[in-house]
Amino acid sequence: MTGGSAPRLPPPPVPIRTERLTLRYITSDDLDALRYYQDPEVCRYLPFPTADEAALNTRVALMTQRVAPSEPDDVLSLAAVYDGALAGDVMLRLRTRADAETPPSVAEIGWAFAPSYAGRGLATEAATALVRLAFDHYPLHRLVAHLDPRNVRSSALCDRLGMTREAHLRQDWPEADGTWTDDLIYGLLREEWARG
Length: 196
Known about the structure:
Layout (H helix, E strand, L loop, with lengths): L15 E2 L3 E5 L14 H4 L9 H13 L9 E8 L2 E10 L11 E8 L8 H16 L4 E6 L4 H9 L3 E11 L5 E10 H6 L1
């Protein structure tokens, strides 16, 4: 949180229920279910390395605190629960503000799911609920998603959300091994979502 004069936004209305999922806050009890962050295949296209045990504990501890974003760079982390089990998680990171007197107007969305739940449409269902929350609860003008271009599943998910592929930045993201990867940027405007 930045200076005291910045407005605070109310916490989001969680839990959120969809046809098959419940999106809820992440708790420390979710540590074992979030072990997919230790899977190199899951983390292959994420902007951070595969987690060792210490990194996973730190990550989960941070996720449990991400419940009421209000300022730029604040994050909301939600577990996507399917049939009583945590199948994946979604995040909303608030970005820019128009000026010091207004709340953030741009946010980034992201998701990760356990491989055992792939191919069932759960990520699309969770991401759709997150987009709805983003535009219904927050005074956002725009949502963005940053993807590794090799992540064809997430690219297809962005297409299903109605997002537009806006940019392909070459060698824009440093990898842990010292190489660079490209960055695809997708965007969705409030009026586009409203037209649905």
